[in-house]
Amino acid sequence: MVRRYGVRRTQVGELSLPAGLGPHPVVVLLHGGFWHAMYGRGLMSKLAADLVTKGVAAWNLDYRGIGGGGGWPATFDDVAAGIDALAAVPGLDLTRVTAVGHSAGGQLALWAAARPGLPAGVPGSEPAVTVTSAVALAGVVDLVDADRRGIGGGAVARLLGGRSEEVAERYRLASPIERLPLGVPQLLVHGVRDRHVPADMSERYVEAARVAGETVDLAMRHDVGHMDLIEPRSPGWSVAVDWLRSR
User: In sequence order, what are the residues at sequence separation of 6 or more whose Cβ sits closer than 8 angstroms to the Cβ of residue 191?
Assistant: First the structure.
């Protein structure tokens, strides 16, 4: 079921519900593509279908991306509004809301979990629906490092409207590693040989999160690539499913 959370073309999500009356736990799915508008929720459709078979409601979000009216603050406003729209949906257990994102979506998933700690008045602050756990699949979890490395061909600077030294406050507000501690359980899954997002980024994030007192798990896989993580039969996704079940 496609539902709107705003008036713009990409301010939509697809809600898939499992059998039964509920209330159902919810997974918010956030696609990757280095925040570019050419990519959409279709990247996460297989995972949504898999989650439903496991008794979980899947809310697969689109959002404005780079080249389609997105960037700062529009992309973040959309993700926040899309998650908050769940408050109006009956049959959901909003005490169990997990954000799961792949690649750039991994950054957005952890940022969504960090929303309660954002200063008042900034994009995403004062959430109506609180994310209670988060999963980053090959996530871009350190935006300053990603900008300096030129990950995604300079996509981070286009997302935030400048380099990390030029708009430092935006990086501080948007980068998951800068928002620690998030205060919710987290899982990071990464392929060791990932050619798009370096695996050491997840390793360093987890180290910093544990120092900050977070409950965070890390699964480094030698048997998956970057895109494998959004395939339901992937061992990397199996790790995420087992972790979600434990929640």
Answer: 138, 199, 220, 221, 222, 223, 224, 225, 226, 228, 229, 236
Task: Find out whether 197 and 226 touch, Cβ atoms under 8 Å.
Answer: yes
> What digits encode the pLDDT tens for the residues 98-127?
999 999 999 999 999 999 999 999 999 999
**Model confidence, pTM:** 0.97
pLDDT score at 247: 79
DSSP type of residue 45: H
Quickly list DSSP for 92-107.
EEEEEEEEEEETHHHH
Structure tokens belonging to residue 6: 């705003």
- Residue 193: CB atoms within 10 A of its CB come to 12
The DSSP call for residue 36 is B
99: nearest Cα among 145, 151, 47: 47
Residue 59's SS3 state is strand
**Buried b or exposed e, range 11-49, using 16+ CB within 10 angstroms:** bbbbbbbbeeeeebbbbbbbbbbbbbbebbbebbbebbe
Which domains does the chain show, CATH number per domain? 2-246 (3.40.50.1820)
Q: How many helices (H) and strands (E) does the chain have?
A: 8, 8
- 78 touches 13 (CB < 8 A): no
User: What does the alpha-carbon distance between residue 184 and residue 246 come to, in Å, rounded to a whole number?
Assistant: 14
Closest residue by Cα to residue 138 from 179, 109, 175: 109
DSSP annotation of 64: -
Contact 144, 164 (CB under 8 A): yes
Q: Which two tokens stand for residue 247?
A: 């929640």
